[in-house]
Amino acid sequence: MPQGVPLTVPDDNLTTKQRRNRPLLMVNTGDGKGKSTAAFGMALRGWNQGFKVGVFQFVKSAKWRVGEQAVLERLGELHSQTGEGGPVEWHKMGSGWSWSRKAGTADDHAADAAAGWAEVKRRLAEQTHDFYVLDEFTYPISWGWVDVDDVVETFANRPGHQHVVVTGRRAHPKLVEAADLVTEMTKIKHPMDAGQKGQRGIEW
C-alpha cells in the first residue's frame, strides 16, 4: 500500500469518498505489548476529529486507572468547557478478572461481562458513540461469557457510522474474519522476560 494508495479497487459501485468513509471494525490482538495503547491512540485521533468516544474495559480491575483514562477524561472535560474535540465516556464493564480478581464465582464474572456487552449493544443500536474501544473484549468471548456469533452479527448490522476497535489476545477466528482491520502484536522482547516489572509512564 505505497503512499496510502490501495493495491486494488473493488467493483462495489461506491465512490472513492464513500469507500473511504465506511465505518471500520478493527481488532488488535497477539501476545505483544501495545494492543490497548494503539486503540487509545486512535481514540485520541477520533476525539480530535470531534468523534463521540466511548471506552469500555471488560476485565481490568476497577481500581486500575491507566494513564490514557486520565487523559481522555480530561479531554472530555475540555470538550464540555470549550466545545473542542468530542465527548468522552469511560466505563469499566467487568469484575477485574485479568488483573485483580475480585470475590465472586465464575458465574458472577460471566454475568458482569454479559451485562457489559448488553450495554454496548444498546449503545450501538442507539448510535451513542462514533468511536468505541472494547478493551480486552476478546477474553469474555474466549471464555464463553459472551456469544461470538451475537458479537459478529451485532457489529455487522450496527447502524450509522460507528467505528469499533476490539483489543485482547487470542481473538476468535470469527471476529478476525468479520473485521476490516486486524493487527497482531508479536512479542520479540519484553522487560518482564528479564524479571522487570511494569513501570510508571510505560505500563500505566
From TrEMBL:
It is an enzyme of class 2 (transferase). InterPro entries: CblAdoTrfase_CobA, P-loop_NTPase. Keywords: Transferase. Pfam families: CobA_CobO_BtuR. The keyword Transferase applies. CDD domains: CobA_ACA. One of its GO terms (molecular function) is corrinoid adenosyltransferase activity. Its EC number is 2.5.1.17. The keyword Nucleotide-binding does not apply. This is Cob(I)yrinic acid a,c-diamide adenosyltransferase. It comes from Mycolicibacter acidiphilus. The gene is cobO.
